[in-house]
Backbone:
């Protein structure tokens, strides 16, 4: 599977969803997750993300390993709904795009 890491939190640019051939992205309030049961590892979403939030599972950086389980868990959450069309980023995107350690902000 591919994994959305903390960089997405508070940004949610959504460029990634337009290119996904299998509609594996699910949208929460301030984060998108990839459903590991839907992702076909095509990797086309990786270069689309302006904040480089997306990695193949085997390439997830050490400090983002916790996001593998979080993606899988949130994909099953009723608070996360399939998104297939790009929309405006969050109003907080510009302010948060270069920040790290955003996990405390994640709305589940
Ligand atoms: Fe998030 Fe990047 Fe997609 S910020 S919504 S993973 S384009």
Residues:
């Amino acid at each position: 599977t591919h994994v959305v890491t903390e960089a997405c939190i508070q940004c949610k640019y959504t460029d990634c969803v337009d290119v996904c051939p299998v509609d594996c992205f699910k949208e929460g309030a301030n984060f998108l997750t990839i459903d590991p049961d839907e992702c076909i590892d095509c990797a086309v979403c990786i270069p689309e993300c302006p904040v480089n939030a997306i990695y193949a599972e085997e390439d997830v950086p050490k400090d983002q390993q916790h996001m593998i389980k979080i993606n899988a868990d949130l994909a099953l959450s009723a608070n996360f709904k399939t998104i297939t069309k790009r929309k405006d980023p969050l109003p907080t995107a510009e302010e948060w795009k270069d920040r790290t350690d955003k996990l405390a902000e994640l709305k589940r």
Q: What stands out?
A: Residues 66-75 form the longest helix (10 residues). The two ends are 20 Å apart (CA to CA).
